[in-house]
Amino acid sequence: MSPKKSKAGGDANKAIILHKAKDLRLENTSMPSPPGPDEVQLRGEYCGICGTDVHLWQEAKLGIFEVQKPLILGHEASATVIAVGQNVTNLTVGDPVVIENAVPCCRCKFCLQGTYNYCEACTVQAKGLPPADGLIQQYYNHPAAFTHKIPPTLRLDVAALAEPLAVSVHACNRAKVTFGQKILVCGAGTMGLLTFLTAKAYGASRIAILDIMQSKLDKAIELGVDGVILSRKGMTAKDLSDMAITSLGGHPDITMECTGSEICVNTAVEATQCGGKIILIGLNPNKLSLSMSKASLKELDLLGVCRYRNSYPQAVELLSSRPEFEKFITHTFQLDQAMDAFESMQKGEGLKIVIKCN
Ligand SMILES: [Zn+2]
Ligand SMILES: [Zn+2]
């Protein structure tokens, strides 16, 4: 069962390893073993960092996930194939790729019906979340079925957006966003902006975005959003809803909630058209107080979003066809500057910070 080709062993494999809360180190780790029959071996190109990584760095835990042993961080990666296992037919050496980091079992009922994002294995095999080592490293193996080839014309740093963009694609698929709809997006951070651009690509006719920071709304305007709503202290969900309806010229058919904040979820309930949908992308670890009777009487559908499924091809297509995504890559750091990258991310600088892994 030897692989067709393998990277010669012996070299150092530099990685960003979280030992415990606030203890992040650049260290040499072992080279991966030759890829298994269904795996590819990859040279990491770029890995984006996001709030999840910063949270893990600061707390060494995130919801149910806890760092029990040193963990390589990173889950938003582009790479180049350097070796393929003997059963691999979809990829060859030299292919540029993006990595779908949560690997399902491919055997349970959810996997068999295509809803593999519900597979329990995804939770323990999501690279970059404990206990599975992540992708801010120079070399690693990954199942070929969850390694997606990208066009050679797509910049490898921009390609690292595929993972968060896949969430937006899945959210738009869940909401069945279609031509001519009005959409309200809550939150103009990276997820909100990716989601607004995805909804626009799906044909939404008018999109308004809401945030508490004017600088973020300015970025949304630069990216072509139709309307912005600045949420100020003391405003109620009703105030924000009225502003959204004015901005959109009517109630949104769909509200895409990317903040997890209580006022935004209630704004979504206030604003969304009767019979409309609210997509819950933002997560809040706390319980929220929600006007459920209003949501019920308006027959609103509240839809959850768990990562993505079968969404990478569409995410790659979006990245390849729309140059505005290049504007997201505001900061690039070398692997040995990774601490600066995390500090920059913690300060809320830029839109997407990427680390060059080789
Ligand atoms: Zn992320
Ligand atoms: Zn499964």
From TrEMBL:
Q: Which SUPFAM superfamilies match?
A: GroES-like (SSF50129), NAD(P)-binding Rossmann-fold domains (SSF51735)
Per the database record, which ranges form the Enoyl reductase (ER) domain? 20-355
Query: What would you give as a GO molecular function for this chain, any one?
Result: L-iditol 2-dehydrogenase (NAD+) activity
* UniProt xrefs under InterPro entries: ADH-like_C (IPR013149), ADH-like_N (IPR013154), ER (IPR020843), GroES-like_sf (IPR011032), NAD(P)-bd_dom_sf (IPR036291), SDH-like (IPR045306)
Q: Can you name this protein?
A: Sorbitol dehydrogenase
> Keyword annotations for this protein?
Metal-binding, NAD, Oxidoreductase, Zinc
User: What cofactor(s) does the depicted protein rely on?
Assistant: Zn(2+)
What family does the entry list?
Belongs to the zinc-containing alcohol dehydrogenase family.
What are the TM regions of this chain, as residue ranges? Answer: none
Write down the species: Tetranychus urticae
Any GO BP annotation? sorbitol catabolic process
